Structures are given as C-alpha cells and as structure tokens.
User: Fold Putative O-methyltransferase YrrM from Microlunatus kandeliicorticis.
Amino acid sequence: MSAPPELPELVVRALRLSLQRGYMQTSRTETGRLLAALAATRTGTIAECGTGCGVGAAWLRSGAPKDTRVITAELDPDLAHGVMDMFADDDIDVMHADWTSLAAHAPFSLVFLDAGSARAAAREQIVELVEPGGMVVLDDFVPCPGWPPLEHGRVDQLRQAWLSDERFTSVDVMVAEDTSVIVAVRS
Ligand SMILES: C[S@@+](CC[C@H](N)C(=O)[O-])C[C@H]1O[C@@H](n2cnc3c(N)ncnc32)[C@H](O)[C@@H]1O
Assistant:
C-alpha cells in the first residue's frame, strides 16, 4: 500500500452510495489519491465529466484548496440527484446535465473524465474546456508499457492522441497493476 488506508470522509460517503446502488463504475482509490494530489495544486474551477456516485468529485474536493470550485455533471437523473442530496452541505456543485454543458462554466484548471466518455467525445471539446496551465486527467486505461499504446491488440488511438498532442505535456501513470491514468498539462 502506498498511502495510509484512511479515506477522506467525503469519499467514504460516496463509496457507501455506490455500494447501496450497486454502481460499479466508481473511480479506483489509487486514481482518487492521484486526483486529490493534483487538485491540491489547482486554483479556479475544477470540472468532472460524469459524476457517477460522486467518488471522483469527493476526492477532488478533499484535495483542492478551499477557494477552488469543484463542479461535476452527470447525465443519469437518479445518480445526479442522489449525489446532489449527498453533497447538499458540501462545497461541490452537482449538475444533472450532459457534461458538454460544463462549457458554460469554463475554462477549468483541471478536467477529469473517464476514458469511455473521452472515446465518445470529440477531443477538441475537451481541450477547449481547459485553461493554459490547466490539466486533463483521464482514467480507466489498461496499462501498456510499449509504444504505440495498444489495447486488445490494436493501437489505442485516444491514448496515442493525448500523449502526442504538442499543446500538452502528458504522462501515462500506472496507478495500479491493472489501471492507468493520463495526466495532460496544457501549455
Ligand atoms: C466511469 S463513470 C464516472 C465515475 C466517476 N467519475 C467517479 O469518479 O466515480 C461514467 C459516468 O458518466 C456518465 N455519463 C455518460 N455520458 C455522460 C454525458 N454525456 N454527460 C454526463 N455524464 C455522462 C454515466 O452515467 C456514468 O455515471
């Protein structure tokens, strides 16, 4: 284990909601710890695309400075309203909306989304959300040691595009044996 086992109280609450709902897509704890550490460096506004049961938002809020805003959007109404209720007294803005509506609150100092959502989007839509010096964090990749990055025997074009984009300084971080996260910092 690379960190003390205690989890922030906000994260524990969000994990309980995930368990209650049988929601299996929550961010991994290893990813969450990275999110919290990155959020600790951020001012302005941090955005999450796809709230799920609020685990990623909880990690971001736990790490971010008090004055940094955390905003998250979820398409599924039950999930969005459940998380809104759960975070009613916390400083996290939860929207029931397609994440593309976050653009109205951009630019962001950090944008977090999962690889599945990123694959379904136009990459430029994500790039446009990020301020200079801001970062995009993409989770749920399968670790791949070689280049070009492969997934299921084929070139993983999404990962290749983020890691090759000259507007960003990027790294693929293997946060656990079976999962990796791309951090891309915009020039
Ligand atoms: C992998 S889960 C997100 C997990 C979450 N970020 C966490 O840290 O636990 C992806 C979520 O995105 C939501 N979603 C899918 N398409 C969306 C869209 N266009 N706008 C907002 N949310 C979306 C799904 O309903 C699902 O809850």
